[in-house]
Predict the 3D structure of the following.
Amino acid sequence: MTEQPSPMPDSAREVPDGADLGRSRGTDFFGLDDLLTTTERELRDGVRTWCDEEVVPRAAQFWEAAEFPRDLVPGYAATRVAGAAIEGYGCAGVSPLAEGMMCAELARGDGSIATLNAVHSGLAMTSVHELGSDEQRERWLPAMARVELLGAVALTEPTHGSDVVSLETTARRDGDHWVLDGAKRWIGNGSVCDLAVVWARDESGDVGGFVVEAPQEADGWDAEVITGKISNRGVWQAHIRLDGVRVPADNRLAEARTFADTNRVLMRSRQTVAWEALGHAVGAYEGALTYALRREQFGRPLAKNQLIQDALATMVTLITSMQLMCTRMSQLQERGECTLEQAAMAKLHCTVSAREVVALARDMLGGNGILLDHHVGRHFADLEAVYTYEGSRTVQSLLVGRAVTGMSAFT
């Protein structure tokens, strides 16, 4: 593997003489950084520094090897991004906006690390915090905030992705336990987690979240890592078979009774995914800008060509539109006013826009765009997972369409 260039241009040695070093070279044209408190900015910058120093230099290595970066987990825990917007329970207690920016920084560094966080924090910790009792929150959240317990959420099934509301996994009561049977697929962290929230339908037809502790050691739990992926290769998703997995009765999340409760978790996770898409776009843009400033063709830097500047301007404009939507979404979230449809629109817009940004970046690098060396190719591939998970583009569009017409087109 060749030496990895920095994802950010070093103004002291990479920018041509006379180049503008002001805000126009960055990705914060509208000064959204000013909305953070000093503490929040320090936490966000801590995530950025950790990614630049520890994650980015190794990302290509564990991406190509399809290895789960276990030794990065302590550093991830130290960033305090896990459950960052949760008040108490050992969490940072920052604003949803600051948490979103922290999540974007993870994705700017590497998609696999960002997905690990989206599953652990955006899904598992959110499930416990939003739907658990006070006792359940106290029991699990502090250790999850320290990432001493790595979480997973098992919702998607082999035959139910977009129509996951048709949940087939069952939970039957047997004395002081629930017994789980069924199968789950595409479960991030599923083969390495210490705690998994399994969604299943009970004998009354109600939907519940059942917390399986130490699932890798549980009788009837079989997690097989899905191989052959072209995206997010450094994080493992699993196909899980549940054959009589026993869960203590008090491990059923207290407030999880219907699929509407599940949607409360999905709304939060889609907000996280929107920020993730933004992070990928910024990472690809920075890689392309670095390349355009360094690479010379026909005796001058690529960045001095009109077509290149047009592409860069398009990319940073799309990034800015994503930032503005994510910022407003997070402000509504802080007030408890963000709706499922607004989260769907943010996920829809940000993943589609990020896809355009990474495609422009990949094109700008020519043949080098398919190499891991310049980071752009990794973002280009990893975004395909973000584009699909937590509901495809068409699912999000149907949610928005239902909101604007008052009629459901789901079949």
About this structure: The chain has a mean pLDDT of 90.
